[in-house]
Design a protein that fits this description.
The chain is an alpha+beta fold. The protein is 17% helix and 45% strand. It has a six-stranded mixed beta sheet.
Length: 230
């Protein structure tokens, strides 16, 4: 997924979950943070930030989106909207062996009381797919979530109900950095989500995790990494 031209910025403080105050080109700016996670290790003054200028729209208060953070020489994608675009592109380009044979990709599909990211159809059996953006890595292990997520658990419950109905369902964790060698649910941050993921996977929900190649111009799937469940 190609990125727009980015500008280097310095983090000052997080105003709220969705807005950060930064310094860019000698001026203070506010940037939209499209990520509800805490990202405590990323959002510090010592980590270089990269923001994307965006056109002002009605009701929009920020002129920038936070796109990347450089953490210990690793570029980390922090825009949680990006994994949908990355996965869609990878499926269209037949990069992911697990999702070949799908010609139709329908976005924002309602199933029961949940809205899922994709419904895939084609030669392969229909599958419902939910993506999650992963930014936290500790000792080469990617962890999700980094804050409690009732919404995430609800999505897993929906995927589980889809499998029980006889259809295919997949949970896909997109690790927006290159230094992860495996993935685990973060039991410390949200034990309920971890239990739900284990239950869903055990019942037949396909669970995948992929790390990414990240540079200042692009984020792309690099490789599939093992998913470790308790």
């Amino acid at each position: 997924m190609k990125l727009p031209k980015l500008k280097l910025a310095k983090f000052i403080r997080r105003v709220n979950r969705f807005v950060a105050l930064m310094e860019c080109d000698g001026d203070q700016i506010v940037a939209h943070v499209a990520n509800t996670g805490r990202m405590a290790e990323l959002m510090t003054e010592t980590n270089p930030m990269y923001v994307a200028p965006v056109k002002r729209r009605q009701n929009r208060k920020t002129a920038y989106d936070l796109a990347l953070v450089r953490y210990r020489d690793v570029l980390v994608g922090v825009d949680s909207r990006m994994p949908n675009l990355i996965i869609r592109e990878a499926i269209q380009e037949s990069i992911l062996a697990e999702f070949r044979g799908y010609e139709t990709i329908k976005s924002e599909v309602t199933y029961g009381g949940s809205r899922l990211d994709f419904k895939l159809s084609g030669e392969a059996p229909v599958t419902y797919l939910e993506t999650k953006s992963v930014n936290l890595v500790e000792d080469t292990v990617a962890l999700f979530p980094d804050a409690p997520t009732q919404r995430g658990k609800k999505h897993l419950d929906t995927l589980l109900s889809i499998v029980k109905s006889g259809c295919r369902a997949s949970a896909v964790f997109v690790i927006q950095r290159s230094d992860a060698k495996s993935f685990k649910p973060n039991t410390v941050a949200d034990s309920g989500f971890a239990k739900a993921l284990t239950a869903a996977t055990s019942a037949g929900v396909d669970t995948y995790a992929y790390n990414c190649e990240v540079n200042l111009g692009e984020i792309r799937i690099a490789s599939r990494v093992p998913v470790e469940l308790d």
